[in-house]
Amino acid sequence: MKKPGLLLSLLPVALLVGIIVLSSSLFDGDLTSGPAQTALVVAAAVGSLIAIFYLKVPWEKLEEAMVTNLKNTGGAIFILLMIGALTASWVQSGVVPSLVYYGLELVHPSIFLIVIFIFTAVISLMIGSSWTTIGTIGVAMISAGSILGLHTGWLAGAIISGAYFGDKISPLSDTTNLAASISGVKLYDHVKYMLITNIPAVLICGIVFAVVGARAVSGGTLNVESQMKDIASTYNVSPWLLLIPAFTIFLMIKKISPILTLLLSAVFASLMACLVQPQIISQISPYDSYSWQTFFYAPIKLMSSHVDIAAPNEMLGKLASTNGIAGMLNTVWLIISVTIFGGMLEAAGFIQTITEKLEKLMRNTASLVATTMGTCLFCNVALGDQYMSIIVPGNMLKKLYKDKGYEGRLLSRSIEDSATVTSVLIPWNTCGAMQAGVLGVPTLVYAPYCLFNYISPLFSIFVAAIGYKVYRWGKRIR
After folding, report:
1. What is the dihedral of CA 416, 422, 424, 425, to 10 degrees?
2. CA atoms within 13 A of residue 437's CA, in its CB half-sphere
3. Whole-angstrom Cα distance, residue 457 to residue 377?
4. pLDDT value, residue 471
5. How many alpha carbons fall within 13 Å on the CB side of residue 315?
């Protein structure tokens, strides 16, 4: 087996990016409905041919890496499917319409952006999951903000920024635990060290979202009271319905499996829909209301497939239209394609060659952190998976940091300040595809407004450059 050179290693990645860029212009930015998946498979095929015929890598090794990657992302796929079921059940049971209704009633449009930024940050911190926060609270908030006439890019940006900040500093977060574990750092030491870069970043984001929200025009001719009246005429709105998200958060705090938590919440909400929304269920089920057939048919229908509900206006019609698990299948297809491409890059040795070249750029603390972040960003682009973008650079750079005398905290923070937050900015990454699918906003539309996801990495480099609380075996260094 030959070792690939740098240009050869970059060829599959360059091909992928080229196809994606061309597809973005030809398919009007709709990348995740087939173009991105096709690009990943084609690039993986070209890379595999190079690996087999030029580098003499056995196909069995390539296949094994692809299967291993798929196994590692299996949990994410199941969570994604359950979020599809949960989102649909929360809409049709009246949970999301109730959240939207009370949000419109209680929150003034001028402070809406900063409120949802803080709200999603708190919820994500409590439950340790940006995905679940965005797939539940985020869906309701973007619907309410759209009714207010706020720009969907800013709405999604505030939701994602808040959710990813909370996720990063939550001891319950899987990425937080993974970054600490890979770097050999105690969990709470890792969390405390991240606050140095993340607190200033989140304060800046809060100021920007507050200013933008205060200056935003809330839609001109839009009549919010009319929208609230239409919601109340379509759904039975009640504060009692908020017990469903409270039940979900309770299960998360109790550390019940995310997959089981989402499934139980979806089933609970679907059954509640049959009880409290008969006017909605009558449009879903062909059987009599409150019959046993309806209590079986309607939950399965709304959790699994497309449902359209009659609404008095177009905006509410979009809110009332759900796709259930079926709406997540394009994203699942994308994740499978990503695992194929990522497995090929690893097995062929392309990733190792690229990261070894990057290591040569590490001359001081700032360049060490910047190169680490560049490696994580590259892995997010090339491997298309957040977890792989933590694991691969972490394993490869841990010895380098140790040899240079840096404590593991610098590595763990650098990984999280890059791999975790940049994953959602890439359309074909599992995180980018998931958030776009759940929020109904294309990645390229919301990406410019995810302020925290840009500011956090920049602050990390800045702090390293000035040498603030950077330690070499317990001693502060520049």
Report:
1. 170
2. 32
3. 10
4. 64
5. 21
Q: Tell me the β-bridge partners of 471.
A: 476
Q: What is the pLDDT of residues 277-330, one digit of tens each?
A: 998 888 888 888 888 888 999 999 999 988 888 877 766 777 777 888 888 788
DSSP state of 2: P
**Rounded Cα–Cα distance for residues 371 and 377 (Å):** 10
Torsion-angle region of residue 28: left (phi > 0), alpha (psi -120 to 50) or beta? Answer: left
**Three-state secondary structure call for residue 455:** helix
At 145, the amino acid letter reads G
Beta bridge partners of 475: 472
Beta bridge partners of 322: 307
Q: What is the mean pLDDT of residues 410-424?
A: 89
Q: Cα separation of 435 and 76, whole Å?
A: 13
End-to-end CA distance of the chain: 42
> Once rounded to an integer, what is the mean pLDDT over residues 156-164?
93
For residues 430 and 375, give the distance between their C-alpha atoms in angstroms, rounded to a whole number.
Answer: 18
* Cβ atoms of residues 188 and 171 within 8 Å: yes
Is 148 strand, coil or helix?
A: coil
**Which among 157, 135, 283, 145 is positioned nearest to 227, based on CA atoms?**
145
Helices (H), 216-313: 224-234, 243-253, 258-276, 278-284, 292-304
Report how far residue 87's alpha carbon sits from residue 92's, in angstroms, rounded to the nearest whole number.
Answer: 9
Torsion sign over Cα 108, 269, 434, 324: negative
Higher-scoring residue by pLDDT: 454, 73: 454
The model's pTM is 0.70
Nearest CA-CA partner of 304 in 26, 47, 68, 84: 84
d(CA 8, CA 40): 17
Q: Distance between CA atoms of 420 and 182, rounded to whole angstroms?
A: 14
Local structure of 291: helix, strand or coil = coil
Q: Is the Cβ–Cβ distance between 445 and 29 less than 8 Å?
A: yes
Please spell the DSSP secondary structure of 385-412, one letter per residue. -HHHHHHHHHHHHHHHHHHTT--HHHHH
Q: Phi and psi of 307, rounded to 5°?
A: -135, 130
